[in-house]
Amino acid sequence: MDLDIVELSRLQFAMTALYHFLFVPLTLGLSILVAIMETVYVMTNRPIWRQMTKFWGTLFGINFVLGVATGITMEFQFGMNWSYYSHYVGDIFGAPLAIEGLMAFFLEATFVGLFFFGWDKLSKVAHCVVTWLVAIGSNFSALWILIANGWMQNPVGATFNPMTMRMEMDDFAAVLFNPVAQAKFVHTVSAGYVTASVFVLGVSAWYLLKGRHQDLARRSITVAASFGLASALSVVVLGDESGYDAGLNQKMKMAAIEAMWETEPAPASFTLFGIPDREARETHYAFHIPYVMGLIGTRSLNTEIPGIEDLVAEAEGRIRNGLNAYDALMEIRGAGNDVTPQMVSRFEESSADLGYAFLLLRYTDDPRTATEAQILQAADDTVPHVFPIFWAFRIMVGLGFAFIGIMAYFFVRSSFRGMTYPRWALRAAVIVIPAPWIAAEMGWIVAEYGRQPWTVDGILPTALSVSHLGVGEVLFTIAGFVVFYTVLFIIEMGLMLKYIRKGPVQDAEETETWMRRHETRLAGPGAAPAE
Fold first, then answer.
1. Helix, strand, coil proportions of the chain in percent (round to 5)?
2. Which end is more exposed in the chain, N or C (fewer Cβ atoms within 10 Å of the end residue's Cβ)?
C-alpha cells in the first residue's frame, strides 16, 4: 500500500477541515448573539438594538456564505480521496450528514434569506423568530456533523457484515445518543459562542479606541461579556466531560494527551509542562500537579489510567485475536453461498478485534502471514504522535482559562463600572481576537490527530481508507485547494474588514435621533429639547 497517498490525503483533509473551521465557530456564536440583540430590540423597541442586530448580522452573513463554500468542498473529498472509507462505513456516516442537509442546512439557508430581506416585510416578532430559527439551524448543523464525527471516535450502534464487507447500522438511537458525540457537540458549540463573544468584544473595543459608534460598542461589549463569560465557563466544564469520555472510550488518546508512558497508580497526576520524547518513552522536565488527571480521566481518586506501554501490549493481544477473525472472514468469503453457522460463530467470537488485524495490511497483503516483527510494529503504530497532541491540549486549555478571565473582567466593568473601560483593556481585547480560533484549531488537532492510526477508532485504519490514486493526482488537488481557499480567505478578510471599518450605517439617522431624545430624558426636565 502506498503510504505517500495516505499521508497526502490526510494532509489535504486536515488542511481543508482546519480552514473550514475558521468559519464555523463564528457562525455558531454570532447567530446566537444576533438573536439575543434582536430579542432585546423587540422587548424595548429601541432602534439602537435593531442597528446592532443588522450590523453584526451583516458580519454573520459574510462568514456564513464563505463557510458554506468551504464546507461543500470537504464533502467531495470523501468520494475523491477516501472512497474505501465511504464504502465501508457509508451506511452509518452518511445518515447524519444527510439529515444535516435536509433538516438543518435547508432550515438555516432559507431563514438566512428572510433575515436579510424580511425587515420591511415581517413584523418585529416574526422577524425575531426568523433570526432564532437561523441560530437553531446553525446549531443543528453542528449537531449532526458532530454525531457523525463522534461515531468515528466511538463507533456504536453498528456491526460488521462479513457478506457485504461493510459496517451496517443496527441502532440509530445509539448513534444519535453516543456520549462522545453529545459531549463533542456541547463543547464545540460553547467554544463557538466564546469565539463570537471575543470577536464582538474586540471589534467593539476597537470602535471605542477610535471614538466611533460608542453607544453600539458599549452595548455590544455588555452582551458579549455576559454571554461570553457563561460560554467560557461552560467550555471548561464540558471539556472536562469530553476528557472523561476519552478516558472511557479512547484510552490511547488520553494517554497521549498526558504523555503517560507508564500506567500511573491512582490518583494520576496532571503534567502541566514537559517535553515528550517518543523514542525514549519518557517526558523530559515534567512538572506534575497531583490528582488532577485522575479526576479528569476517571472522576475518581482510586482508578488508575493506563499508560502507553500497557496499551500497546493490549493492542498486540487484540491484533493476535483479530487474526482469528480475519481467518474466519476469509473462510466465509471463500465459501460463497455455502456459509455455515459454525463459520459465522467462529467469526463473531473475535470480530470485535478485526480492525486490529487490518493494521497489518500496512505491511503485508495477507495479515495471516505477518511476522512477529510486523505484529509488534503494528501494535506500536497505535501510538499517535504524542508531542503535538500533548502541547495542543495545553494551549487549548490555557487559552480557555484566559477567556474566563477576560470575559469576567469586562463583565464586571460593564455591570458595575458604568460601561467604562481603560484603554489598555480595550487594546488587549483587540489583540486577543485571533486567540479563540487558535484554541479551536488546537482542539481539533487533539481530537483528530489523537485518533490515529484509525479513521474509525478500532474499526478501520486510516491506511486502509484511502482511494487508489496517484501521488500526482493528490498533489494536484492539494494545490487546487490551496489556491481556492487562499482566494476565499482573502475575500473573507477583505469583506469583514471593509464592513467593520464602514461600521453600522443602517438605520443610523433613526438611531441617532432616538439616542438624542433618550439622553435628553435622562438629563431631566431642565435639559434643552432634542433637535
1. 75, 5, 20
2. C
How many residues in the chain? 531
Nearest one of 90, 95, 64, 81 to 15, comparing CA atoms: 81
Summarised one tens digit per residue, pLDDT across range 257-303 is: 988 898 888 788 888 889 998 888 888 988 888 887 777 777 777 77
Rounded Cα gap, residues 196 and 56, in angstroms? 10
Q: Which of 158, 89, 161, 155 is nearest to 329 (CA)?
A: 161
In angstroms, the CA 141 to CA 23 distance is: 13
Reading the block at residue 295, the C-alpha cell is 479526576
- Domain ranges in the chain are 5-156+171-253+383-517
Question: CB count, 10 Å around CB of 501?
Answer: 10
Question: In one letter, which amino acid is 494?
Answer: G
Cα–Cα distance measured from residue 242 to residue 444, given in angstroms and rounded to the nearest whole number: 12
Cell 453584526 appears where?
56
Q: Are 74 and 17 within 8 A, CB to CB?
A: yes
The model's pLDDT over 213-265, given as tens digits with 9 standing for 90+, comes to: 899 999 999 999 999 999 999 998 887 777 777 777 888 998 899 888 988 88
Q: Could you give phi then psi for residue 516, rounded to 5 degrees? A: -65, -45
Residue 288, helix vs strand vs coil: strand
CA dihedral 290, 291, 297, 300 (to 10 degrees): 170
Contact call for residues 268 and 305 (beta carbons, < 8 A): yes
CB-based contact 1:461 (threshold 8 Å) = no
CA separation for the pair 55, 471 (Å, rounded): 46
Residue position matching grid coordinates 471516535: 153
